[in-house]
Write a structure and sequence with these properties.
The chain is of the alpha/beta class. The chain folds into two domains: about 70 residues, SP0561-like (Orthogonal Bundle), CATH 1.10.3910.10; about 100 residues, HesB-like domain (Hypothetical Protein Aq_1857, Chain: A, Sandwich). The protein is about 30% helix and about 25% strand. The protein is built from six helices and eight strands. A hairpin with a 2-residue loop joins strand 1 and strand 2. The two termini are about 15 Å apart.
């Protein structure tokens, strides 16, 4: 998206419209204790209305708008490792988990798909495991600070995905990815 194509977020926009334009807005709003993404009023209420209902000041609302516009204009940098795409935030969070894991074992990130479940709508798997638990069907992808285990089939699947970490919800999200701006 070129800067001239970047939407200008303002307080009179509906929350749903903001989230459509900047999907990461849900996490930014959650950082201000606004669960607007899951609220039915998000389709009707403006950002100003929703924030005021939740007791936020005009200064807080302006901070939200500034963060949304900053994010829309400057999306987070990406890291590419053999066609696997991570936001810098997700990559740093994975490295933090590795640092805090068992110091006596070499750890690896397993990327794959979960078994289907009626109760789980996330079909993807990110799992920190001992490297010694590598399955025969998995290949090893090495990066200076990260070892990844993935099957060839899942490697194909994840070429079109972006692994992100959302600070508001404190969880990894895997989403479709079509840009080519990998650093």
């Amino acid at each position: 998206m070129k800067k001239s194509d970047t939407p200008k977020i303002h307080g009179d926009m509906t929350i749903a419209n903001i989230i459509d334009l900047v999907p990461e807005a849900a996490d930014i709003l959650a950082g201000f204790n606004l669960g607007c993404a899951g609220c039915t009023m998000g389709g009707f209420e403006s950002l100003n209305q929703g924030a005021m209902v939740h007791g936020l000041s005009e200064d807080d609302i302006q901070k939200i708008i500034d963060q949304l516009n900053s994010f829309a204009t400057n999306p987070p940098p990406l890291i590419g490792i053999e066609e696997l795409n991570f936001t810098e935030i997700a990559f740093d969070k994975i490295l933090e988990f590795i640092r805090n894991s068992s110091p006596n074992q070499k750890m690896a990130l397993r990327i794959g798909q979960k078994r289907k479940s009626l109760f789980d709508h996330n079909p993807y798997l990110l799992e920190l495991i001992p490297l010694s638990d590598k399955k025969k069907t998995e290949k090893i992808i090495k990066h200076p600070s990260l070892t990844i285990l993935i099957t060839p089939k899942n490697h194909q699947l994840f070429k079109d995905k972006l692994i992100d970490y959302h600070l508001g919800s404190k969880e990894f999200k895997i989403k479709d990815y079509t840009q080519s701006s990998i650093k």
